[in-house]
Every structure is written in structure tokens, then in C-alpha cells.
Design goal:
With 400 residues, this protein is α/β, with parallel strands linked by helices. It folds into two domains: 171 residues, P-loop containing nucleotide triphosphate hydrolases (Rossmann fold), CATH 3.40.50; 110 residues, CBS-domain, CATH 3.10.580. Helices cover 34% and strands 22% of the residues. The protein has a six-stranded mixed sheet, sandwiched between helices. Strands 2-1-4-5 form a four-stranded antiparallel sheet, covered by helices on one side. It has a three-stranded mixed sheet with strand order 11-12-13. A hairpin with a 2-residue loop joins strand 15 and strand 16. Helix 5 packs across helix 7 and helix 12 crosses helix 15. The chain is elongated, with a radius of gyration of 26 Å.
């Protein structure tokens, strides 16, 4: 779209809801304060519909200012902010904010109102009837893991920190907004609760698929939850806007490399899935096979162990060459398989499983069906290939 063209004004819907995710586009957006301080400098960014975009950077870099300009809590000095093609700087700010969910670090629940009343705040402002509000509140409380019958009539002071955050997310989603803004929402809880909330939120996002702008100063959180990440530096400049794998594999400059950390190779494990092409296929035998036949199968390929499958091709265990002796069957001599991960796990999960069980390899399963194994060598090769053209981060690693 021509940056100088003015899109037609589209009136808000009667109930203020948006439903489907909306694209957000920032065109030449800046914020300059009265004393000349530049909070944000000429940003051109597109937040794709249905994606979770993280703004990350050190304190004072303009990430929260950028987010607050989207719902006009802070007014931009220059530029346009387009929500599905409509310039929000020309919209009524109160109606705009009812179409955008907002979750902050301190949650912001009204302390004198019950959880149920808090969650129904925006629908009440939009004029929904009581039955519709109650049904929507009960639905959302269940989605975020709060039993409406147990927690609905409690007050914020009667909830744990994690429960208050869940209630805050439910309130932000109450009117089914197309956009959700989140300003360090999980930073006030302890690390264990924080990780649990991140996991639950990712599960929720997989269901609702909102366009989310998420602010954090924590690069670990950013790479775990973000579809794309904008790394910002002082003065509100975006140094790199990329997927987590691209960001960790190919930092754009020294600032980004320093910010993501020298252990970025390890961080990449957490954002790199298991590719079936990276799996090794060791010899396999079946539970009903004789031990002599199993040993012969291993000797043919020079292996010291084999995977044991049942008649349906599902993983049963493993068998070492040392135990493949005598006249029995494989099923009577095999070991139970402890080191395994599902096919949708990350390389980090696979590596952690190897370490936990002190195993030289980890089996990868699709349900119960055996797909192959990851070894330390194949895991390292998969990590190196996760970002095309990235430089190996292990000293002495061979260059392809």
C-alpha cells in the first residue's frame, strides 16, 4: 500500500469485537517527546495475522512504547498504524481499545470485583446481555484453567499470582478481540509458575490464533513463545526482525549477538524441531524373533544393539548384543526403553532426555510407532542445518 494514501475509514462493529486475527502494520511510526528524546524511531514493521510477535530488548529501548502506540495509550508523533488496513490513529480511542485485548505485568484486575465480573468488563461496556456475558466468562475461565464454579466468585486477593494472570488473559479475550497486547505479563511470578503459564498460553494461542504483540526483556522467553522476534536497541531502533531460529542462527550484528548471548547455539535447541531426515535407523528386531537371529542381524551391520518392535511396528524396547545369546526370544531378553521423545519434541527435549537417562541415543516416536533415533552426532548435525548457512558454534566443527 502507498504510504501516502489514506485508506477509507471503516466504522467499528456494533459490539466492538473483531473475532478473526488482524494484521498490524506500522509505517514510519515514531515517538519523540517534548524534550527531544526519541522513544521510537521511524518503525516499519508488520505483525502478521494470527502470529505471536515478541518485542525484546534492554530497558528503555522503546518496546513498551511501541506496543502502547498500537492501542493509542501513547499517541505516535509520526507515521501510521494500520489494523487490517484501517489507520487506528483516526479511530475513536475508546472503541479501539475495546477491540484490542490488553494484559499487563501487574494484571490490573479490579480488586473490589469478583473474577467473573472482572472478566466480563468489556462485554458489559459493549452492551452484551447477561446470559451471553455469563456464558462467555465461563467458557474463558475454563479455557485458561480456572474452574468457573470454584474461582468465578472469588476476588483477586484470593487467587495466586498465576491464577490472577490467567484471569487477566481471560479478561483480555472476553470480547474475542482480533489483537492481544501483552506487556511482560509473566515476569511477576516465580520461574516454575512462569514456565507453566508460558506453556498454557502457547496451548491457548494454538486454539484462538490471535495476533499478539508480546513485550519482554527476557530473550529466553522470547525464543520460546515467539513466531517472530523484533530485537530493539536504545532510541527505539529495530536491529533485527526474524524467526527465533534465524535470530539465534544468524544474528544481524554485534548488538544482537551480544543480546541473545554466547549460548545461542544451546537456545537454538529449544526452537528447533526434530526432522525425520535427521533420524538414524539402527537395526531392529521383533519380540518373537529368536535371540540367535537377532544377534546375527546386529553382526551383519556391526551394531552392538538393536531396537525391539512388536508385531505392529511399535516400540517395545531394545536389545544389546551381549544379551542376544541362548535359545530364548527377543522379548525375554530385551530392555525397557526409557530414553524416548515424541516426534513433535524439540532438540532440547531430546538432548535433555539423553542426559537424564545417560543414554547414547534417544528413540523418536509417532504415537507408539518407532521412527528412528537421534544420537549426539545426528542431533548436532540437525542443529547446524536448522539455519541454512549458519556458522558452526562448536570449536573445531567441520565446515560443510
Amino acid at each position: 500500500m502507498d504510504a501516502t494514501a489514506q485508506p477509507p475509514h471503516r466504522p467499528d462493529t456494533d459490539d466492538g469485537t473483531g473475532g478473526a486475527a488482524a494484521e498490524i502494520r506500522l509505517e514510519g511510526v515514531s515517538k519523540v517527546y517534548a524534550d527531544g528524546t526519541v522513544g521510537v524511531a521511524e518503525l516499519d514493521l508488520t505483525f502478521a495475522a494470527g502470529e505471536l510477535t515478541v518485542l525484546v530488548g534492554p530497558s528503555g529501548c522503546g518496546k513498551t512504547t511501541t506496543m502502547k502506540m498500537i492501542n493509542r495509550i501513547i499517541e505516535p508523533t509520526t507515521g501510521r498504524i494500520l489494523l487490517d488496513g484501517v489507520d487506528v490513529t483516526r479511530a475513536d480511542p475508546d472503541k479501539l481499545r475495546r477491540r484490542i485485548g490488553y494484559v499487563i505485568q501487574s494484571v490490573g484486575l479490579f480488586p473490589h470485583q469478583s473474577v467473573r465480573t472482572n472478566v466480563g468488563t468489556v462485554p458489559r461496556l459493549l452492551g452484551w446481555d447477561r446470559t451471553r456475558i455469563r456464558d462467555r466468562v465461563d467458557e474463558l475461565l475454563g479455557i485458561v484453567g480456572l474452574d468457573p464454579a470454584v474461582h468465578g466468585d472469588r476476588y483477586p486477593a484470593q487467587l495466586s499470582g498465576g491464577q490472577r494472570q490467567r484471569a487477566g488473559v481471560a479478561r483480555a479475550l472476553a470480547a474475542d478481540p482480533p489483537v492481544l497486547l501483552m506487556d511482560e505479563p509473566f515476569s511477576a511470578v516465580d520461574p516454575v509458575v512462569r514456565e507453566r503459564l508460558q506453556s498454557e498460553f502457547l496451548r491457548l494461542q494454538a486454539t484462538v490464533r490471535k495476533t499478539i504483540v508480546f513485550v519482554t526483556h527476557d530473550i529466553e522467553e522470547a525464543v520460546r513463545i515467539g513466531d517472530r522476534i523484533a530485537v530493539m536497541s536504545s532510541g527505539g531502533k529495530v536491529e533485527q526482525f526474524a524467526t527465533p531460529a534465524e535470530l539465534l542462527g544468524k544474528p544481524a550484528n554485534a548488538f544482537v549477538a551480544d543480546f541473545v548471548g554466547a549460548d545461542r547455539g544451546l537456545k537454538r535447541l529449544a526452537v528447533t524441531g526434530i526432522d525425520p531426515a535427521d533420524l538414524e535407523r539402527p537395526p531392529f528386531v521383533h519380540v518373537a524373533d529368536g535371540l540367535a537371529d537377532a544377534r546375527a542381524a546386529m553382526e551383519r551391520v556391526g551394531a552392538r544393539w538393536a531396537v525391539v518392535l512388536d508385531d505392529s511396528g511399535n516400540l517395545h524396547g531394545w536389545l544389546s548384543a551381549e544379551r542376544a545369546t541362548g535359545a530364548g526370544t527377543v522379548g525375554s531378553a530385551g530392555h525397557r526403553m526409557e530414553a524416548w521423545v515424541p516426534a513433535d519434541a524439540t532438540l532440547k527435549t531430546a538432548f535433555a532426555t539423553m542426559l537424564q537417562h545417560e543414554a547414547g541415543w534417544v528413540a523418536v516416536l509417532d504415537g507408539d510407532r518407532f521412527l528412528g533415533v537421534l544420537t549426539p552426532e545426528s542431533l548436532h548435525a540437525a542443529l547446524r542445518r536448522s539455519v541454512e548457512g549458519s556458522v558452526p558454534e562448536v570449536a573445531g566443527a567441520a565446515h560443510g
